[in-house]
Amino acid sequence: MEFFVTLIQVLDSTIRLATPLLLACLAGLYSERAGIFDIGLEGKMLIAAFFSAAVAAVTGSVWLGLLAGIAASLVLSAVHGLASITFRGNQLISGVAINFLASGLTVLIAQSWFKQGGRTPSLFGGGRFEPIEFPFADAVSDVPLIGPIYSELLSGHSILVYVAFLFVPLTWWILYRTRFGLRLRAVGENPAAVDTAGVSVVGLRFAAVGICGILCGIAGAYLATALQAGFVKEMTAGRGFIALAALIFAKWRPWHAMWACLLFGLLQAIALRFQNIDLGGVVIPVQVMDALPYILTVVILAGFVGKAIPPRAGGEPYVKER
Amino acid sequence: MTLMKSLMGAAAAVALTAGAAMAEPALIFDLGGKFDKSFNEAAHNGASRWAEETGGTYREIEMQSEAQREQALRRFAEAGSNPIITMGFGMADPLAAVAADYPDTTFVVVDVTWLDAPNLRQVGFAEHEGSYLVGMMAAMASKTGTVGFIGGMDVPLIRHFGCGYAQGAKAVNPDINVVANMTGTTPAAWNDPVKGSELTKAQISQGADVVYAAAGGTGVGVLQTAADEGILSIGVDSNQNHLHPGQVLTSMLKRVDVAVYDAMSAGDDVETGVFVMGLAQDGVGVAMDENNAELVTDDMKAAVDKARQDIIDGNVKVVSYYENDSCPALQF
Fold it and tell me: Whole-model pTM?
């Protein structure tokens, strides 16, 4: 029974940790499926985290904060789009630049606005996303097995968690069941064919980068206003890169992305819960768990477990006439 | 030719005197950044106090990556800054490499005590003694018999904190359960409040009702979550009681500001050698102010005062983690 309680707590933590990964991963999915590599996920999340916390702190409304976060992330997306779509620059370099830009800008603006050493004031009351309790969550919590799962694991997260998980089927539906999705995937595989069909490659790619910006914005706002109560410099702590690893691990597919993020979240949750794991005499140090997401990604990339084939036109700017 | 020589000699002499006249201290912050509400901010406070009182100026830089350390040291030394005050154990190796090249410059390093150079002032803190006191308070405040410790990056210094804390807690209640976690093994562990929150939640679910965060910026998340979940927390380095009034039991003060202030006040002729500031020198201590007045009972105050005196007198020995790289009271 005690094991079960621990398991529920670890899974609960998994969901909290996987949510920002999932949002960033889906953001990358849209962008990369359209042929725009985006290693600036980290930077977009960071700037969204800052602006959501800053606006929420000033206005006291977390919803305005969320909007500000999304807007800030969209601005960086536009920069990325301008550099890599319009001016056909190198997508990786543009992404790196965005990460540096966000890392510097956030602390600079925070220091100039709030004078608290690159952080925002602590949020309270309406400035934070509160956990949502499902109906009857308290009532059924004593029911064995199902009770804790319902009241502990599923209930009691902030609304952004549920939004993130709803985005998974929505993304699947958009990508595989709509005309827009078909074109989006096509533009990442063979933009010339899309262009020949009379559809704007540039327009589609900008749309994909825009969706990427919105999702990164939500991810950043989740970090700063739901998980935490304010912005701290570099608070994304590499989550954008783990999300990229998850995207490769999932081979650029939405449902797989969810499972990959949950797996990576679970690894983090286990690493946080148990410092060293004793498996019948063999002690696994916590560093192994921290490194596992990257190790798994390398294994996948090396082709040991199936093949991870990125969208064919990924990374290449589209030029109409050569 | 001779004219050229004397000209150059004169120029060099002018440059030298100019350098000596303008010898202003320099301060190099560690990776956590100047405003980490903790270790580096304490250094900043000490330096600002010196600047305000004396009207002096100083140069400063925040480290952004490991690679910058040696470069920053050399640049300040070449520019004639003296003394050059550096923060954190990460400076040990760069200093060992650089100090001998600038024999006329005095380097001050906080948190390093093991180097061997004639122009080095090494200031260490007996963090285990201060942590011992907050550990006692944690054990006295705990109702569940479980207290938590959350460290930043897993380095001996942080284990040193945790070790003193566990010894203090066990001195009050030998049966107490101390849960200890480290945030990570990379410098990112100093600035990951999200992980700090999750660690706090994990420790709460293991029964902890007082958590001690020795984790730089990550501690902000620890203190926040502790306040949200209605348990007590203990801050570190600077006085963090004001972050969540009435919900932070106390803070383990490490008077980095005093160390920096003293070094800057002494200026060029700052004394070199190894200095360890413990309870006796007021280098470490516990923070008592109006924000935690309601949380600290008279019993706690009496116990802490007695323990402080006992440690200073040598009646109680707090084992340092550095002595044999292990802790008698806590398994990491």
Answer: 0.83
